[in-house]
């Protein structure tokens, strides 16, 4: 059990270090850095590498933003197998809709509870 926590920390930390290096060394904007990490997760998912990383590191690979690219690609691949080419679009929305909906709802509730700065 302790090894699982260790590897989740190491892998999640490594992904965050890569993002921080992009910000500090390459002087990328946060938007560029996030886009690169999402695309990297998607590419690794397409080659079947990210799923192995998730199996190995658990939350260390599913919490960082790279998981969003992985989820989009995995959903699209799953739906293409089931429904053909139209599954490319429907799969991405079907798999990620609950996470995006939760982010919107919790963001709204947070804005109601706290004073948002505009």
Automatic annotation (TrEMBL):
Pfam family, one: SpoVAC_SpoVAEB
TM annotation in the entry: 6-26, 33-50, 95-114
Keywords: Membrane, Transmembrane, Transmembrane helix
Protein name as annotated: Stage V sporulation protein AE
Organism: Bacillus oleivorans
Lineage: Bacteria, Bacillati, Bacillota, Bacilli, Bacillales
């Amino acid at each position: 059990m302790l090894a699982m926590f260790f590897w989740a920390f190491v892998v999640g930390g490594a992904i965050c270090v890569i993002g921080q290096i992009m910000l500090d060394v390459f002087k990328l904007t946060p938007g560029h850095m996030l886009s690169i990490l999402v695309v990297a997760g998607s590419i690794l998912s397409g080659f079947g590498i990210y799923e192995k990383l998730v199996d190995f590191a658990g939350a260390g690979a599913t919490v960082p933003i790279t998981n969003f690219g992985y989820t989009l690609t995995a959903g699209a691949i799953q739906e293409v197998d089931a429904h053909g080419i139209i599954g490319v679009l429907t799969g991405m929305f079907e798999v990620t809709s609950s996470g995006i909906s939760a982010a919107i709802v919790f963001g709204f509730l947070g804005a109601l509870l706290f004073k948002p700065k505009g």
